[in-house]
Specification:
By secondary structure, the chain is α+β, with helices and mostly antiparallel strands. The chain contains 9 helices and 4 strands; from the N terminus they run αβαααβααββααα.
């Protein structure tokens, strides 16, 4: 049974809802979900880092506005990822089973006094998706709402669908003590101490060389500080020349990094 518009309107007054489609004009569509985002050429760690990056962007904006940052945890991430996968078949705050988005929170036993949802589609990066929400007054209102304490971010990649990338933010307000394993994602969880120290352990070793090779072959995704550290020739780009320079340093043929021509 379809919920009448008047009921949806009343529920929207209680639970915040927002939809962003600025990267592409989205219409409701039905298509099979073929893959989660971490199957789109990335591993599970890279998937987690993309979701955490959205939280970082949200929290940087909140802190700049004088608001407290939002915590996240695994359970909220799972609920948001479920909702992202559901928006492939029904891009709405209703779920395919004709219930409202907050029932996904109930399925994961998430405690909340208030809740809101932002959804978006069409962009393949955290920053571009965040900008979709930032450029929409209604979405920004949820991001900047001081009553929310936690956020879950989800993403699904459906390669055979029209818009491929689908994102969800779930906001909740609850007691911090009621959310286990909560954390605040850092922009730079790995902080190199100098050139060549890609894993942030304070040493330049063969382990860093492995990361360098993965980076050049597009098998690794590094943060800004790591990318700066990987630029062993200090020319603004990471190429095989940097890998060769790095290898020569490890072999003792160079005494210092960076090596500038």
């Amino acid at each position: 049974m379809k919920i009448r518009r008047v009921i949806i309107t009343l529920m929207a007054m209680v639970i915040g809802i927002n939809t962003a489609i600025s990267c592409s004009e989205l219409t409701k569509e039905k298509s099979e979900i073929h893959a989660l985002s971490y199957e789109a050429g990335m591993d599970e760690q890279a998937f987690k880092e993309m979701l955490d990056e959205v939280v970082v962007l949200v929290n940087e904006a909140r802190i700049a506005a004088g608001l407290l940052p939002l915590y996240t945890n695994y359970t909220l991430t799972e609920a948001a990822t479920l909702r992202a996968s559901e928006t492939v078949t029904l891009f709405a705050h209703q779920r395919p089973n004709d219930t409202y988005f907050n029932t996904a929170l109930n399925e994961f036993n998430v405690p909340y006094a208030s809740a809101a949802e932002n959804i978006a589609a069409g962009c393949d990066s955290p920053e571009a998706t965040f900008n979709q929400w930032k450029n929409s007054a209604s979405h920004w209102k949820s991001i900047m709402n001081p009553k929310y304490t936690h956020i879950g971010v989800g993403m699904t990649y459906a390669p055979d669908s029209t818009y491929k990338w689908y994102w969800t933010q779930l906001f909740i307000g609850c007691s911090k003590d009621s959310m286990p394993d909560q954390y605040l994602p850092e922009r730079y969880p790995i902080k190199p101490v100098g050139y060549g120290d890609l894993d942030g352990d304070g040493e330049v070793s063969c382990f860093d060389m492995i990361i360098m090779r993965k980076l050049i072959s597009n098998q690794a995704r590094l943060n800004d500080l790591q990318m700066e550290s990987a630029d062993c020739m200090k020319d603004g780009s990471i190429t095989t020349a940097d890998a060769k320079t790095f290898r020569n340093y490890l072999l003792g043929k160079l005494t210092d990094l960076p090596f500038e021509i």
